[in-house]
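Example (one chain per record):
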Amino acid sequence: MTGCNNIKKSPSETVKSAYMAANAGKYAEANDFLCQKALTLAKALGEEAAWDMATKNRTITKIEILEEKISGQEARVYFRLYFEDGSYRNDEEVLVFENGRWKICY
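Predicted structure:
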């Protein structure tokens, strides 16, 4: 029932859900939060490898949302990922409103 996971999620909640699903090794669930264009690219690059790189080999301990900007059918979420080794990385995702849901669309 992964198709229902982000029906009412904000852009920030969508980013958190996608990264935490990938961090837990639930790649199909994480992919459900990608727009069609991003999903095609992820499949071409290798879905698991792409998510493992984004999650630093599934070592995220926390996601902190720094800012969310929504402009019509597009949004930008700025966030900080914290990792098991004590490091962190600032990142951002562009999202689009696709098929009634916010989806990551880099």
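Caption: Confidence is low (pLDDT under 50) at residues 1-6.
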